Amino acid sequence: MRRFGIFIFYDKSGTVKEYVKYLLQQMRSLLAECCIVCNGYVNEEGRAWLKANSDYLFFRENDGYDAGAYQDVILNGLGISKLHGFDELVLFNNSFYGPVYSFENMFADMERRHVDFWGITASEEISYHIQSYFLVIEDKLLKNNAFEEYWKGQEKCVTFRDAVDNFELKITDFFQKKGFSCDTYMNYTEMKEEYGAGNNLLNAVNYELLVEKRCPVVKRKFIMSSVDLALKRNTENLIDYIREHTDYDIGLIWEDLIKEYSPYELMMYGNLHNYLKDDADEDGFSDALTDVCIVIDSIRPELFMDFLNKRLNKAPIVICTDGEYPSGDKTAVIQKEGRDLWAVLSTVRRRKKDVRFFCVLRDSEISREKIKEKRSISDVCGNLISSCGYIRKVKKLFEHQPYLGALFSGEAFDDDFLAQGFHKKHLSEEQAGLLKEIDCYAEEGEQIINHSGCFWIRENVLGTLEKETKTSETAAPYLIKAAGFYSGMLYNTDILKKEYMKKDFLLNEFMEDVVFFDTGYLERQIMEENILKFAQRFQDIFVYGAGKYAKRLLLFLERKNTAVKGIIVTSKTEASDLMGYQIRGIDEVKPDDKTGIIVAMSEKNKKIVMGDKMKNYPGENIYYI
């Protein structure tokens, strides 16, 4: 059997990743000759590797997606007559990982079925078709005029939907209507009956295909596509199975996912949330502390020390501060001297050479206000260091997940988090620029992970972050990504139970009073309409207030696409913004005809404002809720 392979390669960064190299190396043993077609830019290192591992190599603009590349090389680059010298043509691309199981068994099985063309999987989305990421054309069809007729008649694909309609859907239908038989390695009818799967097997039963039917490939996009699918697919179980029951290196998958997706996408779509129960009776296992160090970066380290002295009095601790704090047998003190967190952690790492895992507790830009309000410290770090037994479980998580670089403690679920949670956070232009300076690619406007600023991190991740970054802590997951690792979230199940109780209460309250006041439905509609009419009268709108009423009002105005200039408060605090809006003192906003102010606060505070603070503003420029 003489097989000819045409491989379509595309990578947005132009990098030939290790999973692609492995795929091609495994396919080369089954192919007499291989042609590689590169859609778009490929870096110099990638070009050299592809040239050394192909018989024919073409570079072209990404014009027409895979369909355009196949059409171009079959009709013009190689020519139909070239392909007639082979018994089988394999069309494949780099949109999947594999082979997880040997391709040889698949080719042997399909050879016994005596069909004219085949693939690995099929779908009935829109209409029945063999999915085009792996498509094999047998001798009878390859040398028939219908094969050339199809490619000459293929319409140009401008959009992705064109590529689906004009290639993936059409090629199966075209050849079937010409009388050619087809099949798939994974029995579509059998899987639908057995699992009640939907129209797309790879979407619905990816895990079952791999485990029970020994499907040799895993499609990339069905690992990372949506939160809903992540919960159904259970990505972690899929990758665990590959690691434990096959010879395929999961590092090939993680290397690609970590480079390809943002930390937020990895966290949400990869379902990288970890839940641990704190077994208090395991506190005696102090050996769990032998290779860990707790680093406190705080303006008030005594708050954390009170917690640690009660829970982990034998833990090695390093306090990073600009102030004075006494050292002890297990406690060292390092002066920050204006350095950022990562520079300080690098210093700690060099001093603590026997440490594998660091737990960082901070009163950061995210959590500082809550600590200053003497909020329970367990809300800040209880998810990370409840006991020696709990820490032992944390270490096991890292050992079980070799590409897990850091575990962040989620924020407590309170009224503030409710508002912030609905107000998505995005990477600023400044932060994206700083990250690119240290070769960490990030796009301005990417959604970022909400986290408390406290986290566990591997020692070897810190080893790659020696260079001072000047990035804010919101960008921390990007630094983990730059080191070649992903970030996860860590929850203590005991704390989570309490958080869900708060969540239910606050969410019910929020949904019943989705804007900011207690009224009936009709009254609310009238109030919302009046607010919007008021806002439309002015060039600049300010919201007076920084509490829950103001946050809910901001959410309402955002949903209605109504711009807000900023937030007004009676007395300025250290906080410079609320939900991304700049905070100003009342004296900084001068009354004029172009400025409108919506007062959103409690009745008690509203009376104070009405009687004093707003006396210089025209009444028609103020709207009281």
Quick description:
The chain has 625 residues and is of the alpha/beta class.
Q: Class by helix and strand content?
A: alpha/beta
Q: Give the DSSP E fraction (strand runs of 2 or more residues).
A: 15-25%
Mean pLDDT: 82
In whole angstroms, the N-to-C terminal distance is 79 Å
Shape: globular
Number of helices: 28
Number of strands: 25
Low-confidence stretches: 365-375, 414-423, 511-516
Largest sheet: 8 strands, mixed
State the share of residues found in helices, binned by percent.
40-55%
What do these coordinates show?
It is a single chain. The relative contact order is 0.07. With about 625 residues, the chain is of the alpha/beta class. Helix 21 (about 415-420) packs parallel to helix 27 (about 550-560). The N and C termini lie far apart (about 80 Å). It is built from 28 helices and 25 strands. The longest helix has 20 residues, at about 495-510. Strand 13, helix 16 (about 300-310) and strand 14 form a beta-alpha-beta unit. It has an eight-stranded mixed β-sheet with strand order 12-19-17-18-16-13-14-15, sandwiched between helices. A seven-stranded mixed β-sheet has the order 3-2-1-4-9-6-10, with helices on both faces. The radius of gyration is 30 Å and the shape is globular.
